Amino acid sequence: MGIATPDTPADTGAMAVLEALVTAAGGTFDPTRAAQALRTAEREIAPTSPRAARLRMADAAAAFGVQLSGCPLSVTEAIRYIEDEGALAVFTVTADGSAKWFVLVEAKGGSGRLADLGRPDDSGWRNAEELATALGAASPAAVIEWLLARPAAPMAEAARAAEDATHGAAGHDPHGGHTGHHMPPFRRLLGLLRPEVGDMWLVLLFAVGVGAFSLATPVVAMAVVNTVALGTLVQQLLVLCAALAVALSLAGALTFLQVVVVEFIQRRVFVRVAADLAHRLPRVDLRAFDRQHGPELVNRFFDVLTVQKSAATLLLDGITIALQVFMGLILLGFYHPYLLVFDLILIGALVLLFGLLGRGAVGTAVQESIAKYKVAGWMEEVARHPIAFKMAGGPRLAVEQTDGLTREYLLARSRHWRILMRQVGFALFLQVAANAGLLAVGGILVGRGELTLGELVAAEIIVTLVVATFSKLGKQLEAYYDLLAAVDKLGHLLDLPLERGGGERHQGRGAGASVTVHDVTFSYAGQHVRSLSHTSLALRPGERVALVGANGAGKSTLTDLLYGLRTPDNGWVEIDGVDLRTVRLDTLREHVAVVKGIEIIEGTVLENVRLGRDGVTEADVRTALRNVGLLDVVLRLPGGLHTQLWTGGSPLSLGQANRLMLARAVVGRPRLLILDEALDHMDADIRDTVLPTVLSADAGWTLLIVTHSDEVAKLCDRIVHLDRPTGENH
Hints:
By secondary structure, the protein is of the alpha+beta class.
């Protein structure tokens, strides 16, 4: 059972709430900016709107780059959840009948801390029962609609600067290479891991402890040798062994803590990348996909697993190895000046190993990764077109192209492998030379009486520990290069140009929207012929207009412009008398709906029609399906509205999936409905069922139908002919 939630807010310290949320999400709070954002949200979102308080707070938080997303949780679940996530806010009616904001900012040991919002009685630490009482919930198990506050784009520091993103898709070419400005992989890695700096210092601190306690082995060994040589008591040997056991136990405990901390770093990296892409992908500028296949590009998300594993390897093993080498060499230098010289020679060899011999390794690792994704992209292409590759010659083409791309991958891998093997071979040579060299030098020093036998044994153990790490360098180096290559691939997604943000909220009034296209010219990147040339169009509110023309006349391009997917090269578009260049695109699309092709997500029929819109009820979905003649078809499916659909629409036919797209568009009651050839592929009897819905004057929307059907066009109030442009793009 949930709790009562008000739809409209009383003024309950919205500024304090916003400050708590922005601060918890890692943002910088500015009171002046916050006041302006809250005033704008209050002006643009009517108090009668459903969940007005939440919408206003979400709008204001967005001005600080903080995203508030709905999160239904019980009080008990919220306490557990808050330990790993940002702040949780709730606007609720409490037991005394008042409407208040609460912000849960911290949790520990089954209790949660409410932020101080200027109400001392409603802040501080409380257990689950006390929290439920404060929130007006029946019990800690009662489900509450929380708002989770977290950065809208948590990977912003690992992405290209915003001003660079405005220049189209520059930075990566369609084949996975780099053109124009591109953030170096190491710099991007620093941006990716910057939020983890605190925990990484903790890992380093633990590693220092592990390294220090590990040095107990040579120190105790030296003491044992000297003790045995002097013929002292067994009790002293037992004490030394016990001390060694304690030191190594502490080293083991610190190693365990390292593993725990690194595990949480891996989880947070995955969550941040996923959350960032969930925010970024719906906002990608459509131009980015003109020459790249979006689903294939998103395959690079799986490189986050490489980032996780490679970073874990370097944090757990790499740091420990580096510290053991550093501390071991320092200890070795104290034994004799000659051994200090030995240290310097060894350090010089390491500089040669990592610097000169590793030159070019990052570049070859990136090229190897590019070649790998070309193979994966081609495999995806084969799977995406099963009929084409079953035609005569299709199987041979699939094999030949795969062979060519595989050879390209092997060449790239060989180039990278040569550099890696050069480093590994030198490291192994160094291991042999260092062991043999120390034994020779140490033997001479012992013979001269300048070094005790115990010191020689300790020095040999230290050098053995140091040079033994060299045999592991192959794994560490490959992990490092794979890490940088993986970060570079994630950059392909993080650098995708986004649609413009900002602007005024679109305040449409009345049932239908007015549309005006002013002398618009548009051409696609890389094309010499314009898609639209000096095109003008006007639609009155509630008017039904058919847009007809030959293929290539720019009809679909015009629908993209009306939906804000593209921006004209010249001219401008107005909806309700407002220039689209000044409007927030997300608010524009609350008033405009487009049916253009079939886009089924993996989810139920209900989820596909509702598409995350809270204001759309199941009754609305049923009505929309009925109006497009699909309700009976859906109800006959095994799960009815809750039947699972797969990409492509199965188990629906293509025609039925097309009607589902129409139901998705009309269920939101748009003020402008655009059908881009959506009616042309319907059977005549189905079309006759659908047309009364889309053409009905009671619907209230302005209707633009792109069609090749004379029958459909004649049913509209007006027919507009769009001619194919002939001018070249200069």
